[in-house]
């Protein structure tokens, strides 16, 4: 098999995942995703890009019946949070820079970076991110977590699972009920499991209607 044929096959497999991912709101409550498989999905999710590799994304996995029931009224009684195998709350860590030494230390051990350079990167990252205004700190965390959220949905689909991104929940009550404190920003909820009902089809605007070249023309 030629290299070009292999590449085409890999591309098609990925494009099929992109095309087949739809937001599913009705789940089979009998399906249980083992925690080890969830951990694998989350590990692949963490390969998403992040600002200065500070990895601002955090996950709160809600997978027990009791915790799902606690979440239900906070999520406006949307049944998918109960019927899905788990709900992954995507959080943004506004103080992710506190892990800079560990992050760059791992890079040294992996042979990706010299030790002296890692020390410089660590200090620069701590200085930069610890001094950001609160609004900007929050924005960086939300952007990083949002990139990871999309990656999670694609990884899940590649493994045969369905998801739906949820913004319809009370963030203040969620933060209080699940102990987020001031450090973590709730970005979205993502139920994950197996569809009990096929997602309805959707259409998208023509690319000509959503793309500008070189400048925005109103």
UniProtKB/TrEMBL annotation:
Keyword Oxidoreductase: yes
Gene Ontology MF annotations: oxidoreductase activity
UniProt-listed SUPFAM superfamilies: FMN-dependent nitroreductase-like (SSF55469)
Nitroreductase domain mapped to chain residues: 18-194
Keyword match Ligase: no
Entry similarity comment: Belongs to the nitroreductase family.
Keywords on record: Oxidoreductase
Protein name as it appears in the record: Nitroreductase family protein
UniProt-listed PANTHER family: NAD(P)H NITROREDUCTASE YDGI-RELATED (PTHR43673), NAD(P)H NITROREDUCTASE YODC-RELATED (PTHR43673:SF3)
Signal sequence coordinates: none
InterPro entries to which the protein is assigned, alphabetical: Nitroreductase, Nitroreductase-like
């Amino acid at each position: 098999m030629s290299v070009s044929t292999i590449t085409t096959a890999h591309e098609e497999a990925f494009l099929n995942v992109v095309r087949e991912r739809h937001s599913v709101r009705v789940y089979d409550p009998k399906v249980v995703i083992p925690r080890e498989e969830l951990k694998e999905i989350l590990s692949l999710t963490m390969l998403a890009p992040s600002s200065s590799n500070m990895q601002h994304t955090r996950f709160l996995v809600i997978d027990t019946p009791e915790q799902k029931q606690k979440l239900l009224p906070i999520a406006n009684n949307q049944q998918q949070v109960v019927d899905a195998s788990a709900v992954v709350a995507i959080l943004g860590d506004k103080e992710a820079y506190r892990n800079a030494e560990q992050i760059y230390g791992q890079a040294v051990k992996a042979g990706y970076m010299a030790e002296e350079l890692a020390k410089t990167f660590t200090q620069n990252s701590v200085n930069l991110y610890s001094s950001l205004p609160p609004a900007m700190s929050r924005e960086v965390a939300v952007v990083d977590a949002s990139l990871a959220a999309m990656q999670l949905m694609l990884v899940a689909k590649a493994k045969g699972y369905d998801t739906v991104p949820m913004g319809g929940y009370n963030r203040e009550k969620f933060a209080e009920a699940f102990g987020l404190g001031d450090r973590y920003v709730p970005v979205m909820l993502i139920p994950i499991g197996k569809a009990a009902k096929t997602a309805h089809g959707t259409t998208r605007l023509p690319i000509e209607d959503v793309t500008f070249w070189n400048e925005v023309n109103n």
